[in-house]
Design a protein that fits this description.
The complex is a heterodimer of chains A (112) and B (115). Chain A is an all-beta fold and 112 residues long. In chain A, strand 5 and strand 6 form a beta hairpin. Chain A starts with a strand and ends with a strand. Chain B has 115 residues and is mainly β. Chain B contains no helices and 10 strands. In chain B, strands 1, 3, 4, 8, 9 and 10 form a 6-stranded mixed beta sheet that branches. In chain B, strands 2-7-6-5 form a 4-stranded antiparallel beta sheet, with no helix packed on it. Chain B is globular, with a radius of gyration of 14 Å. The chains are: A mainly beta (112), B mainly beta (115). At the A-B interface, strand 10 of A face strand 4 and strand 9 of B.
């Protein structure tokens, strides 16, 4: 039981490049989330998926897109990376949208 | 307690002593609260939760206290150990009225355990 896994762990991009962050959970959770964590700020929600087949914007969705590929997987895509997207990205899952969330190990992204 | 800013507040505690970490929340409609622990380079890890119909909840070596009157939450760690060194932050969720309820995460307090 691996919990929530994320790939890659580290990534460096140039401005304008695109990439997809992958996330998978093996806990049969319905809800999944993408957050970014910046120094001095709390976790900020980018997008979430309350259940398979649905996605919704969170607090800071601009510049990102998501796909809930199936119940296990929820990917985050940066179409044209910007330096302001330099951050640590966490994926999380929960049994439902009103439960504690289980977090992955994070992806540290640097955009030059 | 927690605050917004580039530098996290730090609590230094001698190994074996008790630790108390505080969190002030802002939304009087918040109904569900969680404490998370985040070790360096890792994702947040659930420690303990409490709902607004309770004042206190105990886990293994941890206790969460909720004071709704002053909107204050605290995490008490008994007999603090070196492995407790991490950033701790609280999260608050408004009452479930159907659909996603925005979870607000605090910025955290860094706990340093002195051996």
């Amino acid at each position: 039981n691996a919990g929530v896994t994320q790939t890659p762990k580290f990534q460096v991009l140039k401005t304008g490049q695109s990439m997809t962050l992958q996330c998978a959970q093996d806990m049969n959770h319905n809800s999944m989330y993408w957050y970014r964590q910046d120094p001095g700020m709390g976790l900020r929600l980018i997008y979430y998926s309350a259940s398979e087949g649905t996605t919704d914007k969170g607090e800071v969705p601009n510049g990102y897109n998501v796909s809930r590929l199936n119940k296990r997987e929820f990917s985050l895509r940066l179409e044209s990376a910007a330096p302001s997207q330099t951050s640590v990205y966490f994926c999380a899952s929960s049994p439902g949208i009103y439960n504690e969330q289980f977090f992955g190990p994070g992806t540290r992204l640097t955009v030059l | 307690g927690e605050s917004v800013g580039l530098h996290l507040p730090t609590l230094s505690v001698q190994e074996g002593d008790n630790s108390i970490i505080n969190c002030a929340y802002s939304n009087s409609a918040s109904d569900y609260f969680i404490w998370y622990k985040q070790e360096s380079g890792k994702g947040p890890q659930f420690i303990i939760d409490i709902r607004s119909n309770m004042d206190k909840r105990q886990g293994q070596r941890v206790t969460v206290l909720l004071n709704k009157t002053v909107k204050h939450l605290s995490l008490q760690i008994a007999a603090t150990q070196p492995g407790d060194s991490a950033v701790y932050f609280c999260a608050e969720t408004p009452k479930n009225s159907g659909g996603y309820q925005k979870v607000t995460f605090g910025t955290g307090t860094k706990l340093q355990v002195i051996p």
